[in-house]
């Protein structure tokens, strides 16, 4: 996989390069400031981009802006955004144009190497990877919504779905059968008024679209 990395912290940037290279990926370019990101992406047209949200010169949302601009120029470009904290508005804006090939992780997740690499590979394949803490924020943010009708188990299943996990992984995580997971997913879709589709990434994208719409409500 060919990857572009944008991170202003030199130690973390070099750590990401080493991590990805050791995993067999090729880092084709690195950026240390916001203005460097889009030109690097357009020049190298990577298989995926790993971008920090806040970059110099202003440390606001330079990485996010670059990600959105790049996906306009290269529709479907897989982007994994890293953030120091849970910032719901950034997650919502990132998902606003469609959740395919997008991820939003807290930087602490990078230290969990297997989880980070798995998330990047899911994003590169066109899937979705939301940090569990981001999902929790989205799920608990509002009252008087259809989410309140979900049982605790259904909320657990929804959270794992939104993180991008397949049914088998959800079943193993919750120590239940895949048949039980399929039943819970059906109940979630029914209560949220979503299409009864449980195939591929479509079910994840549908849930993320619902969460995004409630975020903006």
Automatic annotation (TrEMBL):
Name its species. Streptomyces shaanxiensis
UniProt keywords (A-Z) are:
DNA-binding, Phosphoprotein, Transcription, Transcription regulation
Q: Which SMART domains match?
A: HTH_LUXR, REC
Work out whether the entry's keyword set contains DNA-binding.
yes
Q: Which domain of life is it from?
A: Bacteria
Q: Where is the Response regulatory domain?
A: 2-122
Q: Name one Pfam family in it.
A: Response_reg
> Carries keyword Zinc-finger?
no
PANTHER family found in the cross-reference section: TRANSCRIPTIONAL REGULATORY PROTEIN NARL-RELATED (PTHR43214:SF24), TWO-COMPONENT RESPONSE REGULATOR (PTHR43214)
What protein is this chain from? Response regulator transcription factor
Which ranges carry the HTH luxR-type domain? 143-213
Q: Which InterPro entries match?
A: CheY-like_superfamily, Sig_transdc_resp-reg_C-effctor, Sig_transdc_resp-reg_receiver, Tscrpt_reg_LuxR_C, WalR-like
Tell me the residues on which 4-aspartylphosphate occurs. Answer: 52
